[in-house]
Amino acid sequence: MGSTREQFLKAFYGIGLVGVIFSILCLNLCQYVLLTVYQWNSVEAGIMHAARLFFREYHFFAYLWIDLMVGMVCFGLSFFGYAIVYRVGFTRSIIMLMIVMIAGIFLYYGGTISALFDWMSNFKMSVMTIASCVGAVSLAALFATYPMLRHARLHPMLRKG
Fold first, then answer.
1. How buried is residue 49: exposed, middle or buried, by Cβ count under 10 Å (0-12/13-18/19+)?
2. What pLDDT shows up at residue 35?
3. Residue 87 Cα distances to 78, 129, 149, 158, angstroms
4. Separation CA 140–CA 156 (nearest Å)
5. 146 three-class SS
6. Cβ atoms within 10 Å of 65's Cβ, excluding its own
7. DSSP string, 68-109
8. Which portions of the chain are predicted below pLDDT 50?
9. Residue 154 DSSP label
10. What does pTM read for this prediction?
11. Which helix (H) or strand (E) holds 5?
12. Per-residue pLDDT tens for 86-128?
């Protein structure tokens, strides 16, 4: 097609982010319309949503923001995992994941990082701040894939054997 990997990645990020934002916006608009119809007809029905755990009343922008951040987490972290597997291969990525998990288990139960988890569990933040922080971390993971894949091979690393 004549385009470079860098142009392809930039287009993928742009189209992917716009696709996530547009689809979440459409779903939240449909949810708003449905809730409005329920209220007009005095129907005592509700829609299950993750934000109902934190908000008693329906707030369109709060629900939209939480959905956007969940969408960013799904898009960013899944592409980050794909980029790692593409770059180093499936077997090596599973081995790295197991090493990190085992090291984390030893550090947690050894008491090295248990204080960090205790501090994080007692840290008081609003739901919107937590959602924003999680979304920012996932966007950082998404954009961390650019240097990983910018000069990558055309085909993923295959298993030798």
1. middle
2. 85
3. 14, 33, 7, 10
4. 23
5. helix
6. 19
7. HHHHHHHHHHHHHHHHHHHHH-HHHHHHHHHHHHHHHHHHHH
8. 1, 161
9. S
10. 0.80
11. helix 5-40
12. 888 889 999 999 999 999 999 988 888 888 888 888 888 888 8
Q: Is the dihedral of CA 36, 41, 46, 47 positive or negative?
A: negative
Instruction: Name the token pair of 89.
Output: 């291969």
Q: Which residues contact 149 (CB under 8 A, 6 or more apart)?
A: 5, 9, 83, 86, 87
Token code pair at residue 13: 């990020």
Name the token pair of 155.
Answer: 């085909």
Tokens read off for 104: 């984390």
Q: How far apart are CA 145 and CA 83, in angstroms?
A: 6
50: closest CA among 33, 75, 73?
73
DSSP per position, 10-61: HHHHHHHHHHHHHHHHHHHHHHHHHHHHHHHTT-------GGGGT-SS--HH
Residue with tokens 């081995």: 95
Place of tokens 């129907």: 43
